[in-house]
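mind reviewing both lines:
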Amino acid sequence: MTDAVPPSPARRLWDGARTAAPGVGLAALIAVAAAGLASHYGAPAMLFALLIGMAFHHLATEPRSEPGLDVASKFLLRLGVALLGLRLSFEDIVSLGWAPVLGVIALVVGTIGAGLALARLTGRASAFGTLAGGAVAICGASAALALAAVLPRSRVSERDVLFVVAAVTALSTVAMVLYPILFAALDHAPAQAGFLIGATIHDVAQVVGAGYSMSEETGDVATFVKLQRVALLPLAVLAAALVFREGKAGLAPPWFLTVFVLLVLLNNIVPLPDAVIDAARLLSSWLLLVAIAALGVRTSLAEMARVGPQAATVVVGCTLLLLGAALALERLIF
């Protein structure tokens, strides 16, 4: 009797891809539908992907779709976050001088600290405070997904992640409409309004929409300030990975964070073709959209309701505190 020959790595990869294909395909189909709706109605695609995904929750434990949904919500999520590194430019980060840069760092650190404090006050875990505060402080849904990838599931659940993603996306959309009206009423100059928009609105797309709805100069400044916040994402993720590591976990950063940093350096040291950068950015956006669709399928509305009002208090509280702090800081900088 001969021993069975173990399958080759290529065979295992092929078998894994075949097993994951139905679930990944389902998440991708939801992502395409979400992108179409977002383009038609002018609303965030991630919010549509989340809501549509929840409608298919009954497929979350279906044997054919479950493996692929797991791959999409974990591996594809991390890969999409890693590719965000190609969005950053050192020139953009320092273009406004050092005062706004230091101000943005203070706002990000202060908002994450506020998330931790509000979580403690409302009886939520510190990991949830880090997740909510980081999402508000840095770049909304993308930051929430990046932080969720390193926070232990024993301290923050998938429904917590989905709640934060939905909350910051909704708040960012509201801010995109209301903040330009507020800052115009306060009679801010374009540079001041741009700083405030870039420093307070959660998602990059909403920052761009709000900034350029006021003026081209305001939009340029808002985008630069927002990129400064995004640049702090790897540091926040690494800090969360070190603080919340469990057991005897090592200090090595997660692979996707390492790739993120390497791509930032590559993008700023080597003159990459615009076509390559544009393709990587598009791929990153789609990977994150597919991942959020898969997370939506895996979470039910009933589970979301169990998160409770305390979670909403943390996210909304961080948003209001960030706005107040940015308004105060703007008077010192300009």
In short: The CA atoms of residues 269 and 298 lie 40 Å apart. The mean pLDDT is 85. The longest helix spans residues 9-41.
